[in-house]
Structure formats: C-alpha cells, structure tokens
Amino acid sequence: MHMPSGFLKCLQLPQFGLLMILLGTARAHAAPPVLSMASAPLTTACRPSDPPVNGRLDGASLVRAATRPGQESTLYQAAMRMTDWGGHFTRYSIAPGAAGLAQAPLAAWEAGAILTGDATHPPFPAPAKRHIYTASVRPDGTFGMTPFAWDSLSATQREQLDRAPDGAADGLGAQRLAWLRGDRSREGQPFRARSSVLGNSVNSTPVYVGPPAAAHAPARPDVIYLGANDGMLHAFDASDGKELFAYVPAALFGALSQLTSPQYVHRAYVDGPASAGDVTLAGDTRTVLLSALGGGAQGVFALDITDPLHFAEHGVLWEFTDRDDAMLGNVTSLPQLARLQVATRGGVPVYRDFAVVASGANNYAADGFASPTGAGALFLLALDKPRAAPWRLDDNYYRLVTPIADAAQANALHAPVLLRNREGALRYAYAGDLQGNVWRVDFQGGPPWATAVGPGKDSTPLYVARDAAGRRQPIAQQPQLAFADAGGYLVLFGTGKLIEPSDRTRSGFAPQTYYAIRDTLRSPPELVTSRSRLTRRVVTGDPASARFALDGEPMEPDSMGWYIDLLQSSSTGERSLDSGVLLRGVLAFNTLVPAQNACDAPGSRTYVVNALTGLPDALSVTARLPAPAMVPAVIGELTAPYAARPMLVPVATRTRPRDPAGGTRIEHDVAMANPDPRGAVLTGTVHTSARAGRLSWREIANWRQLHGETP
C-alpha cells in the first residue's frame, strides 16, 4: 500500500490508530497460501516409460487380510495408464503360503476390462443399460435424485454438458453424456479416445460392504465401491467385478465436459476416501456410504446402499458442498459415520446419526465460496435430512471450528479418530491439522457443542507438533488411539504431507516425527506443552541401510508420551502419511521414503514398536525377520514399492497350559507384509502373548488395557 510522504504526520492520533486497526485486521484475516493439490498419483512413479506393472501405475488399493491361519487374503488394486489415463481395477487372490503369504497373487477379474469389452467380449453392462444416477440441486438448496440420462437432467445440467471444454456452446450435450456412459462410437472425433471406459482412481479408497447385519434387511451381494476420475462412484459385484450401479455427483457437473476433450489434461473428480456402515434412519437400519470428492470439488455425498440391486428406490441421501457452508474445503481424509446424543426425553437419551467430516484443504481458496480466515472445522451432517429440506446450521448440520494458528501457513483439518462410549455414541474425537495442532473434541454436551473444541480453554490444542528447531510439523493423517498405562489415552500419529507435486522435491523435505501423546482426561485439561514432556526414542543407522536400530530411556511416571524423529528426514524426505495398525498392543506403521530421483517410485520403511513405550523390546511383544537367526526387531525395514500401512496375516495361534492360579496365555504369530500386485513383500513376523482365563483375584478397573486392547 503506497501513501504519499507526510501522510502519516497529517493524521490525527485517533485516525492513525483506526488505520492501524484496519491494517491489522486485514493481516489477521489474510487467507493462507492455497495448496496446489496434485491429481496424478504422488506415491508411485511419474514416468510412463518406467511403470511398475505392465505399463500401468498403481493407484488406490484395499487389502482384506485373512482373519485366521490358512485363509485366503484379497487385494483390490486400482491402476492407470498415463498415456491416456485409462483406469483399471483388479481383484487379486493371495493364497496362504510361506509365512502365511503367497508371492504370486492371482487376478480374479478386472472391472475396467468388463466395462470396456474387447473383440470377443462385448462391454457389460452395455453403455445404454448401465444403471447410472445423479442428482440436481435446486436454487433453494433442496435436492432431487434422477437417472443420468439426457431427458432426466435439469436445464442447467444439460446446458453444462452442451458446452465444450473451453466453455463455448457446441450442442453436443446428449452425445457427450453418451460418451460418459461408455459409448465409444464418437471416440477420436469429436471426443477423446480411451483404452478403458473406467476412469482411474488415485486418492479414492475402495470400500468393501458385505451382507447386511440386520436380520430383516434384504439380501445383497458383496459389493466393492470405488470413486474414479471419470466423474463416478462405482459399485462392483465383488464376486465377478460387474458394475451394479454408478453415481455422478451433482457438484461435478460443471467439469464433466472436460473429460471428453481430445486435449484432456488429467484432473480429479470422485477422488476422495469413502467409508460405509449401518445407521438408523426413521427407525429402520440402513447401510450408508459416505464419499469425499477430494480434489474434484469441495464436497461430500451420502448414498443409501442397503440394497445395491435396487439403488433407484432409495439411492442418494444428500450432497454437502462449500455452497452450503464456505468452511468446507477439499475433503481428502476419511468421512465417517457416528451416532450422537442430541437430547434427553423423560430420562431417556435421544440419538441421531451423523456424517463426521473434517473441513479439509483450501476452504479459503477464492472460488466464490471462500472461508475468510482459513480456520478448520469439523462438520456433523445429519443423515436423516430430507431431500426436500435445505441445509440449516445448528438444525440439520453442525460446525465445530478449530482455530488457525498461523495465517502465513497452509491449513487443513484432517479426519479424526472417533472414540465411542459404552452405548455406542460418540464421546471424543481427536484430529490433527497441517499446522501441527492436535485437537480433542468433547461431545459430552449437547448440540450445538459450542465449547467442544479443545481440550484447553478457548479452543487450545492438546499438543502442537514441532521439530527440534521449533518449526510446526504438518499432520495429514487420521490418528490412532490406545489406552494409556496410567489412565486416559495415547494419541498416535506421524507428521509429513504429500499433497502438492512440490512435496516430492528436495525443497519440500523437512524433519518429521512419529508421536504418542497422552491425554490424561483430567479436569482442568492437562495440555502437553512441548516435546520436552515426551520421552525421546533415538533411531540410529545409515539412512541408506535396510534396517535401523531404536533405543531410548525408560519412561518416567510423569512422561506424557514418546516420539521418534525419523532419521535424517530433512535430507531423505522420509515422512509419515498413515498412522498404521494397532494389534494387541503392537503398533506397526509405514513411512514413505522418496527415491533419489523424484520421479521414481518411493519405498516404505516399516516400524514395529510397543504402542505404550515406543520401543521394540516391551513385554510380550517381539518382531523378527523370517530367518530364525535374525533376532533384532523390525525397525525401519526398507521395502519397495510404497504401501500406506502394513498388511497383517494370522499364521498361528497357541494356548499355553493353565498355571496353578487358573490363568493361561494365548500367543499369536502374525506375518507382516506390504501388499503389491506382484506379490506381498514380507517384512517380518509379529509375536504377541496375552494373559487369558483367570487373571487374578484383584479388581480390574480397565480390563481392555490389561489385555493390550485399544478403544
């Protein structure tokens, strides 16, 4: 801002003070920098000349690990061709073999090939017979479901499809819609040619939904759901890979015409994580799927998938976007289902089911619906909102704000870990953001939960993750929870992000850490004010080696947790993108390790520690490599390619003879591997031992902790 010489001298003191207040207010409300979100995969190679599997790059995956020794595991793996961004989605069977794992998974089906067809097999379903649906949002905010067919669309939607990617009207809307449904007759001219009708999946997550839990619910096949960058959420029969139905979110209509352009530049569409579960709607048990749109749009949607064979009868529940609330951003972390107590009537609790959604990234982006501050928010979206009702704050949705600490840094709140009480209602939620804040949200009070964010007074976080030099460390993952020894909980999470293409380059490397922060649940809240209150664990070794060593002092009674600084991560780029897996007191997590060349595929380092101590040598917990002579614990085991979290497969279970007091021990051997279509890469085995039978004659105040269980 330029002011002429002597201008300030001419201002009287009150005027000058007012000017400073206005300038200060402008600075306080300046939006943080917008994240340049990548639509192409960042956790794999980025060169089409060096793909990992048959000319394809890996995308989203889901592992359904065996639950008992000798059982088959299943890997659902998305892949893509960078030459035309064609999508593939394959089911692999992983038969038990050495150490419980097989090294040669077998492909059972590939959904993209079934939808596309070939010279000997016509596409199935035929494009005109696919069950594809969408919805329209009316000016008053109400909502209607409709088939994805030209005559069923609103005038606005037809007008959007009637436009070429450059925005000029071309009158090809009906043909463009047919192309989106899979019609290939106009590929090459005027529309883009494809190797696969199925779009690719990068950041979306496959969701497996089996038979209904409710006895009176209609029978249904096992279904695998997957969001794709063809603008659709797909439902595939898990047994044969055939598409049952697809849904095109209304929030994406303005960008659908870009998909048909011969000069197509890859972008995100339905590119966020999803989850599913049973809820109660109007007194009936229904199965609901929640999906984020990721980088595709600032929004989430909810589908009733109780009966996927008759989706048209119930179908879409709602969509919620930044048009409904400007504090919603690009949701790149998991939306979840939860039941909350909203009232008490006649001494009886009243519950309501919600979608719990973290606001995500770039809610302050100048897109016409920008949040003015860049603060985060945790949204509670009522699942029973009628389609004919608009969204209303503190009525059918609630917004709990997490303050921003530094307006000069990018901010994004990520998915919380949810803790439920014995009635199954949500009690606490713990979430982190890109500015390193760890928030606890307390749902003990009723709506609108105005003072729930904290745990400190005036919305102070439980902890702020900072490196040894005091710089904030980004949290871009959902935490884990474990019972703490002396009461309360341990919040387990790592730091680091991989959101922007620049995060792959050396200029984006920074010191990163894995933490366990104790929340004592005392009143007033006991905040963890710095890492000096945590017990340090030290990683040693050569950063290029296949394994590290980990050591540390015993935890003092007043310790508020532990932390592991990843070895030389400011130069290696190692970071934590997923909090890992908890199993009977064992914490197993992977980190991402970039290759020397930023365009090569990164690898994984697998760590196994006791969740309570952060060390590998805790009581009843060992982790060893397959060779019997190798006794060091698995710390930083380096494998390729990158996997977000280890796969744990049961190998053996043994029950020891009872002792004189009637107690016994149950021992479990679990194979640990990183899944891959070329064969699961074995990283080690985990042995756990837990007491069972009669434990003692004393009163047990927390039996779950005694058994090494987690919330």
Q: Biggest β-sheet, characterized? A: 6 strands, mixed
Beta-strand residue fraction: 25-35%
Total strand count, please?
Answer: 40
Compute the average pLDDT. Answer: 87
Number of helices: 7
Computed Rg:
26 Å
Q: How does the overall form come out from the CA principal axes?
A: globular
Low-confidence stretches: 1-28, 49-54, 618-631, 697-701, 705-709
Fraction of helical residues: under 10%
The class by helix and strand makeup works out as mainly beta
What is the fold's blueprint, element by element?
Blueprint: H1 7-10, H2 13-28, E1 57-64, E2 73-81, E3 86-94, E4 106-110, H3 111-116, E5 132-137, E6 143-147, H4 155-161, H5 173-180, E7 207-209, E8 223-227, E9 233-237, E10 243-247, E11 274-281, E12 284-292, E13 299-304, E14 316-321, E15 336-345, E16 348-358, E17 360-361, E18 376-382, E19 397-402, E20 412-413, E21 417-420, E22 426-432, E23 437-442, E24 453-456, E25 460-461, E26 463-464, E27 480-483, E28 489-494, E29 513-519, E30 535-540, E31 549-552, E32 561-565, H6 569-572, E33 581-583, E34 586-593, E35 603-610, E36 621-624, E37 635-639, E38 647-655, E39 663-674, E40 681-693, H7 703-706
Parallel strand pairs: 5-10, 30-32
Antiparallel strand pairs: 1-2, 2-3, 3-4, 5-6, 7-8, 8-9, 9-10, 11-12, 12-13, 13-14, 15-16, 16-18, 17-20, 18-19, 21-22, 22-23, 23-24, 23-26, 24-25, 27-28, 28-29, 29-32, 30-31, 33-34, 34-35, 35-37, 36-40, 38-39, 39-40
Helix pairs in contact: 4-5
